[in-house]
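Risk register update: the risk of archive-format incompatibility is retired. Evidence:
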Amino acid sequence: MSGNKKKIPVVEGMWTSPSGSDRKAELIGNQCCECGEIFFPRKENGICTYCQSINLKEIKFGTKGKIYNYTILMQKPPEYYQGEVPYAFGFVELPEGVRIRSHFCGCNFDELKPGMEVELVIEKLGENDSGNDIMSYKYKPVMA
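Archived output:
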């Protein structure tokens, strides 16, 4: 099966898929052109939930942020979750002014701290029933 294995995003259209090794994936959101509110994931219905405007533009977020807060989950959530347990999960504050939910990876859990700089990575979350890799965005600590 390994030759036919596919990489399937956990949700289509949440990040860019750059070509070339010098480019990094970016998360995709919306910004309301009327009130300036920022959304992630992007609003598929195209309506701002704050001012009800339909004038939204697509934006891409930078690849770095800071941990706002997090927790370590020791128990597997409902059946749709395909990842490993335990795992670190919390909020990343992006420079664009939005906080997004994310998994944290690439370190020991006791190294994580609020305010720590992290960077976006696209990694395997788990496998589906067909053995394909389910891919998700995650954040890992920036190494000094």
